[in-house]
Design brief:
Elements: E1 3-6, H1 8-14, H2 19-35, H3 37-42, E2 49-50, E3 59-62, E4 67-74, E5 79-87
Parallel strand pairs: 1-5
Antiparallel strand pairs: 2-3, 3-4, 4-5
């Protein structure tokens, strides 16, 4: 089992998410808890990918056409840190 840690910025955004995006995020969390990031790559609709540039230490999963979840993985402690949920804006 994987643990999910929601950073403060991500936790504040949760209440503001559109309902369908919130439901997809709940599904995303369930998959990560059960299978880890490898489970996300098996589901094509998430378009899970490693980012480049200044955000190269993060991964991104698509929750909708507009919304993304940005996260990082600590494999040694089996933890996924959700950095932020944002409407496709990768500026730091």
């Amino acid at each position: 089992m994987w643990a999910i840690v929601e950073e403060r910025e991500a936790a504040k955004t949760l209440d503001k998410l559109p309902r369908n995006v919130g439901e997809k995020y709940t599904l995303w969390c369930a998959i990560v808890r059960h299978s880890g990031p490898h489970g996300l790559r098996a589901i094509k609709s998430f378009h899970d990918e490693k980012l480049r540039g200044k955000l190269g230490h993060l991964r991104s999963s698509r929750l909708s056409e507009q919304w993304r979840v940005l996260y990082r993985v600590e494999a040694d402690v089996v933890t996924v840190h959700v950095e932020r949920l944002s409407p496709h804006d990768y500026r730091p």
